[in-house]
Amino acid sequence: MLPAIPLKRFGTPEEMGHAAAFLASKEAGFITGQTIIIDGGQSLPESSLV
To answer: Would you write out the chain's pLDDT as a tens digit for each of its 50 residues?
Structure first.
């Protein structure tokens, strides 16, 4: 699975927590109905990696 991640590393629990903390903050108050993908770029189409 690691070779498929453009950042060439797994995410840390702290990185997931930072995203969750942001979404729970007042700074994210205008964000609604979105899916935030935290995957180091793994879900990017191959053409965007060139």
So the answer is: 888 889 999 999 999 999 999 999 999 999 998 888 999 988 887 655 55
pTM for the complete prediction?
Answer: 0.66
Q: CB-side exposure of 6: number of CA atoms within 13 Å? A: 13
Contacts of residue 2, Cβ cutoff 8 Å, sequence gap at least 6: 8, 9, 10
| Alpha helices (runs of H) in the chain, residue ranges in sequence order | 13-23
17: left (phi over 0), alpha (psi -120 to 50) or beta: alpha
